[in-house]
Amino acid sequence: MRKEKMLEVLINPKYKNKTPEKMIFIGMLYASLSLFLVKIFFSSDTVLSKYSGMLVVTFCVMFSLPFMYYLIKKEEKEDEQAEGFLEIWKMHSDAIYAFLWLFLGFLLAFSAGNIILKDSNLMNAQVEVFCMINSPGKIESCVQEYSFENLNLAGATTKEMRFMSILENNVSVMIFTLIFSLIFGAGAIFILAWNATVIASAISIFSDYQLSAIPRGLLRYMIHGFPEITAYFITALAGGIFGIGLIRNGIRDPKFLKVVGNVIILLFLSILILVGAAALEVYLTPILFG
Questions:
Q1: At 106, is the pLDDT very low, low, confident or very high (cuts 50, 70, 90)?
Q2: CA-to-CA distance for 52 and 49, rounded, in angstroms?
Q3: CB of 280 closer than 8 Å to CB of 227
Q4: CA-CA to 192 of 20 to 30 Å: which in 72, 99, 163, 277?
Q5: Tell me, what's the pLDDT at 129?
Q6: Is residue 11 part of a domain?
Q7: In which domain, by residue range, is 24 found?
């Protein structure tokens, strides 16, 4: 029997502790490795350093794919036996919690790593997305403002513009998550890892690039962020279950029809959660944090 390497043991989902909360450490490992690998191997490259933000996400996806695929495949088998909203939620709640803890690990490591490494290129694409959402029409100046060379924080857009940008972004993320998960069940992890880096960039900016301020920044964005991410994970799970169910059973199999009904329920739940998350972001977060 061959000895397993430490990284293989941590990445291989068969070695995963069944307690969802343990996934926070796996998420922190994946995100930290992604940041450090890009920093070490690509930061000095004239061309590839410009795409560091995407390379970080790519490495994170590579590490996460085995777990994502294993979990979605497992959930699809259980889904064939579930009926009704409460039973569906009970059946998939452990997987959703595991996703959320994994995502929280991503956020903590990406936020802290971004601040510690102090390399504007590592999250260059993510900062541009942050500026696109919060400062439409002033993206270039916003990117310069939030670089490590210039840490001034200032408001940059009207409430109406920000609301429309946030709404458009969230709907786009949900649609792309569904499309990616339908094409390849585990493929939705790309959208989710990308979203983790964007939120981590926002947390870093809100924290004024200070490690001690990360908890407040995390609270600032997770009040509405966790419901949003929950909706995206449910969407990814629904798309993955649909795709695997179609391949396993065929379109005319009664088991597949049951899967379709359950997928519709999951997507409806995602929409309800996104509506609630949008209300929190627009009406509660500004009151608490300005």
A1: very high
A2: 5
A3: yes
A4: 163
A5: 74
A6: no
A7: 19-289
Half-sphere exposure of 55 (CA within 13 A, CB side): 20
The answer to the question of residue 4 being in a domain is: no
| pLDDT tens profile 175-211 | 888 888 887 766 678 888 888 898 888 888 888 888 8
Residue pair 164/281 in contact (Cβ under 8 Å)? The answer is no
Q: Is residue 115 part of a domain?
A: yes
Q: What's this model's pTM, rounded to 2 decimal places?
A: 0.77
Query: In whole angstroms, how large is the CA radius of gyration of the chain?
Result: 19
Using an 8 Å Cβ cutoff, are 174 and 234 in contact? no
For tokens 């993510």, name the residue: 126
Residue 269 to residue 250: CA distance in whole angstroms: 25
Residue with tokens 């972001």: 281
Cβ atoms < 10 Å from Cβ of 165: 16
In a domain, 13, yes or no: no
Helical ranges in the chain per DSSP H: 6-11, 23-42, 52-79, 85-117, 124-134, 139-145, 159-183, 189-206, 214-249, 254-279, 285-289
The residue type found at 244 is I
Say what percent of the chain tops pLDDT 70.
Answer: 72
With 0-12 / 13-18 / 19 or more C-beta atoms within 10 angstroms meaning exposed / middle / buried, residue 15 is exposed
Distance CA 60, CA 51 (A): 15
Structural domain count, the chain = 1
